[in-house]
Specification:
Elements lengths: L27 E2 L5 E2 L17 H33 L2 H16 L4 H12 L6 H16 L4 H20 L2 E3 L4 E3 L1 H10 L3 H12 L1 H22 L5 H8 L4 H34 L36 H14 L5 H5 L14 E4 L6 E4 L6 H18 L15 H12 L5 H7 L4 H38 L5 H13 L17 H4 L4 H22 L14 H12 L7 H9 L6 H6 L11
Antiparallel strand pairs: 1-2, 3-4, 5-6
Length: 601
């Protein structure tokens, strides 16, 4: 289960016009390259060049920037929040205008040159100042565009976002409308294959409504990126996230090889289970036979349905459980929970996200909770983002009051969200009966591994499709989508289907070139669990480490993960936090089924 995390500073947009340049005194080079002063006395005495205090100059620039951009950011975040809550046309227009203002503030080539000049003299600056300027320099690049181009990018994106927020799938001859939650609930319960197909198609229906708009937006994004010197929009976004494109492709190629056989073995077993449930041959399984319309999450297994621990709760209980859990870790989130929005309403964004409004303390979550393991996972996930934001060191300059990277905050969210499948957690917080949980322990571990493998293969679809989308937005994207779904998820393509199913995924609009960070988050979350095992001296399976009421864990998270904020490049951050570089080996170990005690000789 992965939800949209609204990370306004995935690439931080920076300001223009922060300070004025004094050109009243200009030094000019002589033939040797030395600087000569043009203000001369009658005796033609040459004055020595005036030494520039680069530290003071950089400090003044950053102070002025932080004051100005913080307010623009706050307004943009508030307007985004209001539009997500209401779905009203006027609120989306306002959100678009404030986002455009934020971008325009950072579109000055002259200001970009000033940042570059300061970085050329970085040897005279302290590490925090250098890091702040580097973040600024990276972010400036994306916005060095004409105002009309920036406006077009924002307007087209907001137009599509509004369709997603307000669209409701329809069923039956009377075309009755249903929310995503309602359709997903129906899909979970329905056993008739034909009816499941109809529900699945209703969930995909929004794709046709947004596909032409999204293709147009992709072309505009590409044109903008090319004008800035990048191969295409995909490459631009990857580079501005401090990733190397070739290294990232290698990482995901290795992930494919790493998971090919474990996924195939797991899916064969899963398909046989589901085939019995739907009374079809395993070879006849179709995409609508899986409870998630994208097959990005594991359906309940024949041995355990974790919804049994939540379905009798009130939706408010899901919030209360998360509130108590985080408080028990000394990661109190009461203030965040109080200002967030949790339940369905007309026009509201149907997904889930977390955002910081001001980087001072106003952190909020948006969810659409129903009593289920999905929404318990989601609540713990979004609250993970939230406490990360809350406990970033406020002494850091505004620019660096962000997570170390997009994928590090995703890792924390996934780390905590996975506790909805942790046996000791279920007993302590969901009040599950210990004997029942003990009986299901191996099945719960297997289900968790299924979840990890299924999501890994889904990210391969998203990563490779989006890269191909921006390499050529005019190609047959409907066919390309199913080619990749067949290759990476090993699903059967519906006969004669030629619909833009790819476009029904909102991330292409709301969080473009982002999904790879979810998988990197999974890798880092596995690495964090390894660090946790050592910290708590646990020999449990990684998914079953007892974390209940562990203030030691809370302290580790605050000091090693949250407090540093955006102070370091992510490569250095990971080393500092866990003692080693980011690696897939921890994830590889987690997706191996442990040998149960009863089967040991």
């Amino acid at each position: 289960m992965k939800n949209i995390f609204v990370f306004f500073s995935a690439v931080i947009w920076l300001s223009s016009g922060c300070t004025k340049t004094d050109n009243s005194h200009v030094d000019t080079p002589d033939k040797s390259g030395d600087m000569k002063n043009t203000d001369q006395k009658g005796d033609n005495t040459v004055k020595p060049p005036q030494k520039i205090d680069w530290k003071a100059k950089a400090s003044a620039y950053l102070d002025d920037y932080n004051k100005k951009v913080a307010e623009l950011y706050r307004v943009s975040a508030i307007d985004f929040w209001n539009a997500a809550i209401s779905g009203k046309t006027e609120d989306f227009a306002k959100a678009g205008a404030s986002e455009l203002a934020f971008k325009k503030f950072h579109s000055s080539k002259a200001e970009y040159s000033r940042v570059v000049e300061l970085l050329k003299n970085a040897k005279e600056l302290d590490e925090i100042t250098k890091r702040s300027l580097l973040v600024i320099e990276l972010a400036f690049r994306e916005n060095l565009l004409p105002t009309e181009t920036l406006k077009s990018l924002v307007d087209k994106s907001k137009e599509i976002e509004k369709v997603f927020n307000t669209y409701r799938g329809t069923l039956g001859k009377n075309k009755k409308e249903y929310s995503n939650n309602q359709l997903l609930g129906m899909l979970r319960k329905e056993k008739n294959s034909k009816k499941r197909q109809q529900i699945w198609e209703a969930l995909k229906g929004v794709g046709a409504a947004v596909a032409p708009k999204l293709i147009e937006l992709a072309k505009i994004r590409n044109s903008a990126a090319i004008s800035l010197g990048y191969k295409d929009f995909w490459h631009m976004r990857i580079i501005l996230q401090e990733h190397d494109p070739a290294t990232l492709v290698t990482l995901f190629t290795e992930l494919e090889k790493l998971t090919n056989e474990p996924f195939r073995t797991m899916k064969d077993k899963l398909d046989k289970e589901l085939a019995k449930r739907f009374r079809v041959k395993a070879s006849k399984m179709m995409p609508w036979h899986y409870d998630n319309p994208f097959f990005q999450e594991a359906p309940p297994s024949a041995r355990v349905n974790l919804d049994e621990f939540f379905k009798k709760m009130k939706k408010e209980d899901i919030v209360g459980i998360a509130k108590k859990f985080y408080d028990d870790l000394d990661l109190n989130a009461d203030d965040i929970i109080a200002r967030s929005d949790y339940y369905e309403k007309k026009g509201k964004d149907q997904h889930a996200f977390c955002t910081t409004i001001d980087r001072l303390g106003d952190v909020r979550m948006l969810l659409n909770i129903t009593p289920s393991v999905y929404w318990m996972d989601t609540m713990l996930h979004e609250a993970g983002h939230a406490v990360y934001y809350k406990y970033i060191d406020r002494k850091l300059p505004w620019t660096l009051r962000e997570a170390a990277h997009i994928f590090t905050t995703e890792a924390v969210a996934m780390y905590f969200g996975a506790l909805s499948k942790n046996t000791s957690w279920l007993i302590e917080y969901a009040k599950a009966k210990p004997a029942r949980v003990k009986k299901l322990e191996n099945a719960i571990i297997e289900q968790r591994i299924r979840e990890q493998l299924i999501f890994a293969r889904w990210t391969l679809v998203m990563f490779n499709f989006e890269k191909a989308l921006y390499s050529n937005p005019s190609q047959d994207l409907n066919k390309l989508w199913w080619d990749m779904v067949e290759k990476y998820q090993m699903l059967t393509r519906p006969a004669k289907r030629n619909s833009p199913d790819w476009a029904s995924k909102p991330h292409f609009t709301i969080a473009p070139v982002y999904y790879h960070n979810y998988m990197m988050g999974e890798l880092f979350a596995a690495q964090l669990r390894d660090a946790t095992k050592k910290l708590l001296k646990s020999d449990a399976h990684p998914s079953q480490i007892p974390l209940n009421k562990s203030k030691e864990l809370g302290k580790f998270m605050k000091e090693k993960i949250f407090a540093p904020g955006y102070s370091y490049n992510w490569v250095e951050f990971v080393k500092r936090a866990t003692g080693s570089e980011l690696s897939s080996k921890y994830f590889a170990e987690e997706v191996k089924m442990p040998v149960s005690k009863s089967s040991k000789k």
